[in-house]
Design a protein that fits this description.
With about 240 residues, this protein is α/β, with parallel strands linked by helices. The protein contains 4 helices and 10 strands. The radius of gyration is 23 Å and the shape is elongated.
Length: about 240
């Protein structure tokens, strides 16, 4: 199956956005730098980006942590299986405020907890058994044995307020690139918050009375497609 490109994702977001927000009349063209051009009485360029709670380069970001969580579970189960452990299943909830820094120590610690559950009944595991493992918030044991038993995530999240500082950073980053874009009469910055992705999901609650500050964008708009919610940020 062909992988969906970033351009196709941006086009999908924009098609939803134009359903939910009134655009100037004109012909819509999908391109690059900017991502969309609307040619009407004037030329509008729209740049599209996603608002992640933290940059993907940040080791504590959800983009990085979700992969590390899976690796911890896979490694811990592998150690447990190699040691001849029962084929039960563990479901683990990690603490998003306590990021994983190393895989092996956490996997070894989880393996040690599993060793103590060999004769336990199904249910929530006592926190006393794993309170020394900071990144883990809760563990559920399914004591039934399965040939293809798998230890898995049961990750829970709360939805935070809008990351104002991160939005400011994105506006600065995107503004610096505008001189290299196709010439338009005006530009909009469309910032998407996709709630399906826990690394992005946040409330669109811009603080009352706060201004974003000057930028080369005529409009900075935050858009949550699933709620059809659009917020224009005051500048």
């Amino acid at each position: 199956m062909a992988r969906i490109t970033s351009s196709q994702i941006e086009q999908h977001y924009f098609e939803q956005f134009r359903r939910d927000y009134l655009l100037p009349k004109g012909e819509v063209t999908y391109c690059d730098k900017p991502d969309v051009i609307v040619r009407g009485d004037s030329i509008l360029g729209v740049e599209i980006t996603n608002l992640f709670l933290a940059p993907g380069s940040n080791a504590a970001s959800e983009q990085m942590q979700r992969g590390l969580r899976e690796k911890v579970l896979q490694r811990a189960q592998a150690i447990f299986s190699e040691a001849g452990g029962k084929k039960f299943e563990l479901s683990v909830d990690f603490n998003v405020l306590k990021p994983i820094l190393q895989i092996e120590p956490n996997a070894q610690a989880l393996y040690s907890v599993a060793q103590q559950l060999s004769n336990a009944d199904s249910g929530t595991v006592s926190r006393a058994l794993f309170e020394h493992i900071e990144p883990i918030r809760s563990i559920y044991l399914n004591a039934n044995e399965y040939p293809d038993a798998k230890w898995r995530l049961m990750q829970g999240f709360s939805v935070p307020d809008l990351s104002v500082n991160r939005l400011r950073e994105i506006v600065v980053e995107k503004s610096a690139k505008l001189p290299g874009y196709q010439a338009c009469d005006q530009y909009w910055l469309l910032v998407v918050v996709d709630l399906i992705d826990s690394a992005q999901d946040q409330r669109l609650n811009w603080p009352s009375g706060l201004a974003l500050g000057a930028s080369p964008y005529e409009k900075v708009l935050i858009y949550k497609p699933q709620y059809r919610e659009v917020v224009e940020i005051p500048q």
